[in-house]
């Protein structure tokens, strides 16, 4: 039932983005109309259509602010779409003075106070999308997290066989984009997947789909064992949640 959801959401697959969007909005239900902030994620099959998708969304829902990005795969409630044309969205009704959209290589200048809207609330938390083609992305993420009063952000990296577009009220590229929230918005986060960098940079010598077989002309598992160390390599289950 639509009224059982805290925030209306929808998702669908179709080769035609208009059909996919129509099915998505039908699933989300009438509560999407009148929201203030929407999250939209589309497969890279629809990347070139993203400006038009955004325009139609605003016309159909009246939601003024949108953030999101392009991905080769999209996760939705009890559903995932990989290597196929699809989109997913969710709409919220937060007060517009409690959030702020940003984008760019330097979304905030060094030392700039992260104030938000007319109420001048400091930014407490952010949902951030990073452009995978930005060379200094780790430094940008680290710096941006330090500018939140909580010191905490969440989000992900766009992925695409094209340009990896992001959304921040319009289509943008490069650096970081997303939305910051004031402490007036209560948010609970949960880690679904993550990773930590280990060892030096390697070259993928052989792979099938998303499975790496060889790194630097060596079996990938041998390289992995070598870099996680003797203790973890004895029991790979211990590596889960640790690296």
From TrEMBL:
The keyword Kinase applies. Residues 35-219 form the FIST domain. The keyword Transferase applies. It holds the Pfam family FIST. This is Histidine kinase. GO terms for molecular function: kinase activity. Keywords: Kinase, Transferase.
């Amino acid at each position: 039932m639509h009224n059982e959801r805290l925030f209306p959401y929808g998702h669908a697959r179709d080769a035609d983005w208009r059909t996919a969007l129509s099915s998505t909005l039908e699933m989300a239900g009438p509560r999407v109309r009148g929201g203030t902030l929407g999250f939209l994620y589309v497969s890279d099959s629809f990347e070139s259509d993203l400006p038009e998708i955004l325009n139609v969304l605003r016309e159909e829902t009246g939601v003024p602010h949108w953030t999101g990005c392009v991905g080769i795969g999209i996760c939705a409630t009890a559903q995932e779409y990989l290597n196929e044309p699809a989109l997913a969205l969710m709409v919220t009704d937060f007060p517009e003075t409690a959030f702020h959209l940003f984008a760019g290589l330097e979304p905030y200048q060094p030392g700039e106070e992260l104030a938000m809207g007319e109420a001048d609330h400091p930014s407490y938390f952010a949902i951030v999308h990073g452009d995978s083609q930005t060379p200094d992305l780790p430094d940008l993420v680290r710096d941006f997290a330090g500018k939140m009063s909580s010191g905490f952000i969440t989000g992900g990296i766009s992925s695409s066989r094209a340009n990896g577009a992001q959304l921040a009220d319009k289509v943008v590229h490069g650096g970081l984009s997303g939305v910051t929230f004031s402490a007036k918005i209560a948010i609970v986060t949960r880690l679904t997947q993550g990773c930590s960098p280990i060892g030096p940079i390697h070259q993928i010598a052989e792979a099938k789909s998303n499975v790496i077989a060889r790194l630097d002309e060596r079996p990938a598992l041998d390289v992995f064992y070598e870099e996680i160390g003797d203790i973890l390599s004895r029991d790979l289950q211990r590596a889960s949640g640790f690296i």
